[in-house]
Amino acid sequence: MNPNMKVQHGFPEDFLWGGAIAAHQAEGGFLEGGKGWSVADVEKYVTDPTRFSYKELNFLPLERIKEGMNEVDSNLYPKRRGCDFYHHYKEDIKEFAQMGFKVFRFSIAWTRIFPLGDEEQPNEEGLKFYDDVINELLSYGIQPLVTINHYDFPLHLALKYNGFADRRCIDFFVRYCQVLFDRYADRVKYWLPFNEVESVFRHPLKSAGIIQDTLTDEATTNQILYQVMHNQLVAAAKVTGILHEKYPQCQMGCMGAKHTNYAYTCDPNDVLEVQLMGREFLFPLDVQVFGKYPVWYWRKLEELGVTLDAPEEDFRILAENTVDFVSFSYYNSFVTSTRKDVELTAGNLHVGGKNPYLPSGDWGWQIDPVGLRISLNELYDRYRKPLFIAENGMGAMDKLEESGSVHDPYRIDYLRLHIAQLKKAVEDGIPVFGYTMWGCVDLVSSATCEMRKRYGFLYVDGDDLGNGTYRRYRKDSFYWYKELIATNGENL
Ligand code: BGP
User: Fold this and answer.
1) Which residues have a Cβ under 8 Å from the Cβ of 116 and sit 6 or more positions away?
2) Does residue 349 carry a pLDDT above 80?
3) Would you say residue 48 has pLDDT above 90?
4) Does any domain span residue 9?
5) Cα 309 to averaged position of ligand 1 atoms, centre (Å)
6) How far apart are CA 70 and CA 44, in angstroms?
7) Per-residue burial over 83-111, b = 16 or more CB atoms within 10 Å of its CB, e = otherwise
8) What is the spatial order of strands in the sheet that 344-346 belongs to?
């Protein structure tokens, strides 16, 4: 048969099933093993996150950073605790292996490797920790997939340089990556430089170490943030080049949050609005895949009055070092309209229009499995690169029964429906090569610093304030995912 006529049934045999976490939400081990302070260590728990907008939750002025640095022993900083993966990684990985994971996505805490960020020499104890994690994974045949920086920028680099606003941070990032590649590239094939690379516009401190107090007015904010975005893209391209040259067996991907939006009405203005919004979210991935900015972008900068400090050399670096695959997070979708009367609802990372056709979860995020198939098709049509679903999952209130069981049928439903759509996309011919369910062990939520917002297959006995044994319990979804992996996605 002509190979062009091949019809895909079900998932490919080597499909990578697994789960994902990030260092600052899972590890704990605050300042242990020589670790330095990251911006996540000063993110304070707020007793009622629903009272705050995402902007208030995510923008930390200098005063609050200093307050956090003075409270070394406080219980009110959940990201210093995570789910204590730092001390539980062996048992957690054993449980992932029990479920049959083929891949595990985790991030490396920059401040374990370079506690301040601008040192010449790395911290051996930090490097050793990730050696142990990687070796543990490989002992069970689980492939590591590493995010190099996931929302835990070194605090010292933020305070001293204003993070990626200063081009010297490009060099610090490159040095950090070189150390990681030289140490782990023999065992880690897949790498991602930045989590949700477009996120600097949403939370500049978390994503790039930008101190809020420097964003004094709209013009200054635009000038700084678009420069930061550029600097991060150059940093990502540089390390992509280094990885490709020194370790050609490895692959570099990009990672973006997929903000899927639908037009609220068939008014062409609504449809256009969706298109314009989509390209705003995707332009950093465009740069990483195509090696250049889209033309509309320069016009936008002109309109905003932003002038990039970008030597010619930057554009050569971007053009020459494009990525091997595209990964993304997908949780929910929104509707968009030019009308002002559309009801709003919460979703991952921001608030958007509420879709009357979709149900919502405990935190108001709307559940849209078909949107995953739409997103996969859209991304493949645009990029023609292999795709990887780096995050997908459901934050919910779980209840630990006295028997030690946790019944989470809502999570099983969410995952079943999304994976059914993923399967359809695979059968559409989209080359998706893996799926890592977000927060496979309960961890601290990113936006709201809560422990009670649980995503995991493994329940962790700890509350928002750190009370509890941190013992792990298997939820019903644990057994469901195990069966799913065992049948390579057939037994949904
Ligand atoms: C993504 C982040 C993750 C994760 C997830 C869920 O955008 O990459 O770190 O936390 O969102 O968000 P939350 O934890 O706020 O529920």
Assistant:
1) 36, 154, 156, 157
2) no
3) no
4) no
5) 31
6) 12
7) bbbbebbeebbebbbebbbbbbbbbbbbb
8) 260-263, 333-336, 351-353, 344-346
On whether residue 161 sits in a domain, the answer given is yes
Q: Give the integer Cα–Cα distance in Å for 133 and 143.
A: 11
Residue minimizing CA distance to atom 16 of ligand 1: 445
Split at pLDDT 50, 70, 90, the class of 52 is low
pTM: 0.97
Domain of 279, in residue numbers? 17-486
Task: Tally the residues of the chain.
Answer: 492
Mean pLDDT of all residues in the chain?
95
* Residue minimizing CA distance to atom 12 of ligand 1: 446
Confidence of residue 11 (pLDDT cuts 50, 70, 90): very high
Distance (Å) from CA 54 to ligand 1 centroid? 12
Q: With bands split at pLDDT 50, 70 and 90, how would you rate the model's confidence at 37?
A: very high
Q: What three-state secondary structure class fits 1?
A: coil
User: Annotated catalytic, 280?
Assistant: no
C-alpha closest to that of 464 among 67, 24, 49: 49
What's the total number of domains in the chain? 1
Pocket of ligand 1 (CB under 6 A): 22, 25, 195-196, 257, 329, 348-349, 391, 395, 438, 445-448, 453
pLDDT-derived band at 51, boundaries 50, 70, 90: low
258-272: per-residue pLDDT in tens? 999 999 999 999 999
Spatial contact of 419 and 432, defined as CB atoms under 8 Å apart: no
Question: The domain spanning residue 343 has which CATH number?
Answer: 3.20.20.80
Residues 205 and 212: beta-carbon distance below 8 Å: yes
Query: CA angle, 337 as apex, 334 and 341 as ends, to 5°?
Result: 100
Q: Is 196 labeled as catalytic in the residue annotation?
A: yes
Residue 127 lies in a domain: yes
Q: Running DSSP on this structure, what letter comes out for residue 331?
A: -
pLDDT tens for 157-213 read: 999 999 999 999 999 999 999 999 999 999 999 999 999 999 999 999 999 999 999
DSSP code string of 398-438: ----TTS-B--HHHHHHHHHHHHHHHHHHHHT--EEEEEEE
- Give the active site residue among 136, 196, 273, 450: 196
Q: Report which secondary-structure segment, H or E, holds 25.
A: helix 23-26
Taking the CA of residue 444 as reference, the ligand 1 atom at the shortest distance is: 14
In a domain, 464, yes or no: yes
